[in-house]
Amino acid sequence: PQPRAYLYRPGFTGREEVFRKLRQRIDAARGGQGAMVFLAGESGVGKTRLATEAGRAATGASLRAIASECTPFNVAEQEGADYNGAPLHPFVRVLEAVADRCQEFGPAETARLLGARGRVLAPYAPALARAPGFHDFPDAPQLSAEAGRQRLFRDLADTLAAFAADRGLFILLDDLQWADELTLAFLESLPASYFEENPVVFLGTWRSEEATDPLRRLAALPHADAFELGRMDESAVGEIVSAMLAMKKAPDGFVRFLSEQSEGNPFFVAEYLRSALAEKLIYRDLDGHWRLLTGDDDTRASLERLPLARSLRDLVTRRLDGLPEACWHLVEVASVLGRDVQGDLLQEVARQEAGLDEVAWLEALRTVLDRQVLDERAAGQFRFVHDRLREIAWHRIPETRRQMLHRLVAERIEAGCATHDDYPQNYRALAHHWTQANVLPRAIEYLDKAGMQALDTFANNEAVAFLSEVLVLAARDGASIDVARRARVERSLAEARLRLGNLTEGRAHAERALQLCERPMPVSTPRWVAGLLLQSGIRIWRSTFPGKQRPDDDVLAL
């Protein structure tokens, strides 16, 4: 049994009004006007299901609908850097759809949809570089950090507008609480005039309990519609229970009991019912009618005696405990891989770790899908039915085993992408897996790469987080970095801090970088003059002989 897509019907608190508003925005897009809509609500309240229904409505209205999710690698209660997906990763699917259209219609379409903008966007979506006619356009000129950031946002907005020109575009951005810095800044940068002139509809969702200041700013934009989905009332719970059990009307006492236990959260309702069915607390009699274990008595006292778990963690734990051993191995690996699970990677690691043959692997996968632990999102791509399942499964793995699994995953990712153009898109995933595997030298290497990638793509807060984590790990036992790398990290932290307007900390990082290079900050006027002349000479040297720099030239050029 599983809840049906009734979340926009009357009786589901607030959902019918939200869905009506979404349909209005979709209809307006058919007339050439876009919109920005946000849905907030607690975990499990039904945001994604409602947003998916809106996507289906957009497709039915002949809009081009593309769903994308923000990808976290961390799970709850983990510490350290923010291991979300690569910069602008929620837009990769959209840009890949642009690349596919260019492949279909040739260089003329590449010129219309991308043009010179393709050179700016290709680092974020490598598929664009394979569009016919892509290399006919020159490399993008170098700009300052802020100017480059604004050009990126402008080029992405213009490309989406060009892609939407013929039939409108509906973009679902699920779980924005896990979005990268550039994605949130891009959405905030779009003015009201953009939606007045272009049929682009953004629908973003996030967990209200994990709302951040950037998300609150998005919700407060005057040209954005923001809604918060509430929990369901008792009648709505009754409709879900009746739908899942294929009953005309579920017993009133049982519905009231479930409504109280779940507090109106649809995910909790579904988990309680699954648990009750699995443990045969609800069963069909010989006439095909559903009965409670207590018989026809559904009074409060009888229901309280049911051996039903009283917390979501207990419910999920019971469901996971009921899995066969091979299935549990598969779930362990999936929880380590992250929110979105690539089937080939899951198969390689799970079969290697558990020693499963092809038949055993397929049987385990089928069982996990049938028991609604994983869901197949597309061919060869899986996802936990709910993020809470993944979080609880990950925390149940013993630490030493968890480290081993993270190491296997990291090794497989490296082996699979080290020679491909999407290698930089995996820096953050590799940083996360090597950190969790406690292989500090490899973790430092990819944290450094992720930090420099963030700095190069103008995600300054993320650059600070990753590069600071490099210094934290370098201070642990068994880890170290050489002086040149430490100086470069300090220099990069100085640049990121200065871009953010934090002059005090930026100066402190710059001074530490210079000290590491044995070039302390000058304290007298003559030394300042000499330092400025030296920096000017270094810049001239770098532009004249770009391949002959010393390791500390980047630091001195600050």
Write the layout of secondary structure elements.
Blueprint: H1 15-30, E1 35-41, H2 47-60, E2 64-69, H3 92-105, H4 107-113, H5 117-121, H6 145-164, E3 169-174, H7 181-189, H8 192-197, E4 200-207, H9 213-219, E5 224-228, H10 234-245, H11 252-262, H12 266-278, E6 282-284, E7 290-292, H13 300-304, H14 312-321, H15 325-337, E8 340-342, H16 343-354, H17 358-370, E9 374-378, E10 381-384, H18 387-396, H19 399-417, H20 427-436, H21 440-456, H22 460-474, H23 483-499, H24 503-516, H25 525-544, H26 553-556
Parallel strand pairs: 1-4, 1-5, 2-3, 3-4
Antiparallel strand pairs: 6-7, 8-10, 9-10
Keywords:
alpha/beta, five-stranded parallel beta sheet, disordered C terminus, 558 residues
In short:
With 558 residues, the chain is of the alpha/beta class.
Quick one: biggest sheet?
Answer: 5 strands, parallel
Number of helices: 26
Structural class of the helices, strands and pairings?
A: alpha/beta
Distance between the termini: 62 Å
Overall geometric form: globular
Contiguous uncertain segments of 5+ residues: 1-13, 551-558
β-sheet strand percentage: 5-15%
Binned, the helix content reads 55-70%
| Gyration radius over CA | 27 Å
Number of strands: 10
Instruction: Strand order, main sheet: write it out.
Output: 2-3-4-1-5
Determine the mean pLDDT. Answer: 82
What would you note in describing this structure?
It contains 26 helices and 10 strands. It has 558 residues and is an alpha/beta fold. The strands form 3 sheets. The protein has a 5-stranded parallel beta sheet, with helices on both faces. It has a 3-stranded antiparallel beta sheet with strand order 8-10-9. A two-stranded antiparallel ribbon has the order 6-7. Strand 6 (282-284) and strand 7 (290-292) form a beta hairpin.
